[in-house]
Every structure is written in C-alpha cells, then in structure tokens.
Amino acid sequence: MSFLRWMPPLLASLAIGATGCPGNPSSNEPKPAASPEVSVSLPGVDTSSLTPRERREWAAQVSELLSPCPDTPVSIAQCVKEQRPCKACLPAAQLLLDLVKDGRSKKERDDAFHMRFDANKVKTLATDGSPEMGPPDAPITIVEWADFECPFCRLMSPLLEALVKRFDGQVRLVFKFYPLSAHVHGEPAARAATAALNQGKFWEMHHLLFENQDKLEQADLERYAQRLKLDMVKFRADLVSTDTKARIDKDKLQADGVGLEGTPLIFINGREVNLQLLSNPGQDLEAWVKLELELLGKTPRPAPPKPDDASPSGSAIPAASAIPAAGTSAPAGGAARPATSAAPVQPAKPRTP
Length: 353
Hints:
40% of the residues lie in helices and 9% in strands. It is an alpha+beta fold. The strands form two sheets. A six-stranded mixed sheet has the order 6-5-3-4-2-7, sandwiched between helices. Strands 1-8 form a two-stranded antiparallel sheet. Helix 6 (151-166) links the parallel strand 3 (140-146) and strand 4 (171-177). Helix 7 (186-197) packs antiparallel against helix 8, helix 7 (186-197) packs parallel to helix 9 and helix 7 (186-197) packs across helix 10.
C-alpha cells in the first residue's frame, strides 16, 4: 500500500484534539433550553439536508458575520438576499453550510471563513529567485514552505503539482525551503535541492528527495545528483557554499516573519491555508483555486474528461486516499526557474510533523 494512502488518517490526526468523549450529564443538571428556530432562506443555498440544529447554527452565523467585502457592511445573509455586488457573499454562505454539515465547531467555522475571505488576512510574499512551476504571470500563486524530511510535505507535494496541471496556465507553484531542526537530514536535502537548482534540475531533485525520504545521507544525495547527470564538482561545491546557506536562511527568515509553526506552510494568493480546516485536501484546494479564479473574474480551466473509473465527482485532483506516489509525474512546464515577482498569497495553517 502506498505511503500516501495514509494521508486521510494522518491529516485527521492533526485535526483531532486529545480529548475524550464526555460522559452523560447528571440527571439533576438542568437541561438547556432549545434555541428558537432562526429562519434564513437564501437564494442559491440549499439547506434542505440540514437538521434543525444545523439550520439554526448556519442561520445564526450567516446573520452575524459581515460580508467579505469591506464596502458591503451588511451580514452575509443580507448581502445574498439583497443581491449586493459582493461576489464572495454567496460562496461564503455555502462554505459555512458545508462546514456545519461536516460537524465543525463555531470557532472552526469562523476561522475558516476569515481564512478564506477576510481581506485583512492577505499578505504579500516575495517570490523572486525561488524555484517555480507554471507561468510567472498566472493569476493564482501558491507558495509552499517545505522540509524534504517532513512526511506531511511529501503527502502535499503531488496535490500542489496536480493543481498546476489541472489549471494549466492559471496556477504558479513557488517552492521555499524550511528544513526543520528536528529533521537531521532536512538541511542537507535542502542544500542538495539548491545545488540542483543552480544546474536547472530543481524539480527533478525535489521529486527524488521526496520519493526517497528515508534515504537522505550524503552518499544518497550524491547518487541522486549523478542520476540527474549534474556536474559533480559544482554540485559538491554548492552543497557547502555560503550562497546556498544564505538562500535557505532567507526562506526561513521570511517564513518566521509570517508565523510558520510547522511544515508544510501554504499560501494561495496571499492567504495562508490552514490545512486542519480542510476536510478533503485535494478537493478543497481545487475548489479554493476555482473560486479564487472566479472572484478574480477569470474562467477556470474546465476539468479534463474523467476516465471510466473516475470518482463520481469528476474532480481532476485525486482524493487524499488516491494520491499517486510523490514525484511520479510532473506537470507540463515543470522545469524550475526563478520566480520573477512578488506575489500575494492566501492563508491556511501549516501542519506540524
């Protein structure tokens, strides 16, 4: 069984707190009064599958949260009902509904809403000089900080590359180094990837390092360089050069500045993606990119025809349990080149290995 098939339980283990199930309350304790039914009906949002409790929770939240657009200072519900010009209101209402159905707590729903739509959450990240995949002028820029010895980074890698392929010409993926101190091979692997970048073979080395995550000793790194037909004299020199260390340290300093707590740390158009708030990383990231394109006034690339054995959803991004082995294929245009501009990114929370 592929290691990547363990992604769902691994991701779930991060999202579940270490608390036990509460016992039955004492029969002597007063029962809380049932909340009155809040009736909210919004065009374009189907709440028929919600239970009465879920409907109350959703209705209360869309009635209290303000619209995502600063120039539309009304609730999400009012924004949708009155067809205000804020294009993000209807998607926000739908996001909250999906989160209620998933059993997310009110805080998780609030966090997910602000993560995805709060204008104050958008940051500008410098990407110049970093290896990238996809066109430099793509409307969507994904920036990832990763550690080659981090198992969750290995799991995320094929999902991000699949987005570049799925939205061909519309998504750019930028890679940044963050070897964690807890991973003794993270720093040497990052140095090897940087040395490969200097010879135009970053993504090829990137794939080899993740494919062979348990083989990152010095002899292994040199063997991968030889497999890629790199100039070994230059490769060995770059492994220990001050320029290589400076490049890695620069990425780490930037990540510390935006609050990295673990890897992978991912931003989409300046918004940090909290991976713990994603129910299905592949599908949720694809939906995020698709909506972001629509909000930017772009038409998302249509999903390619699904094979006969594809899932009913027709999603071009594999489900977490069906992710191909990391590095088995790279999207078109996968040759590494330095990113040429600063790009805003979207937020989500990193995952600590």
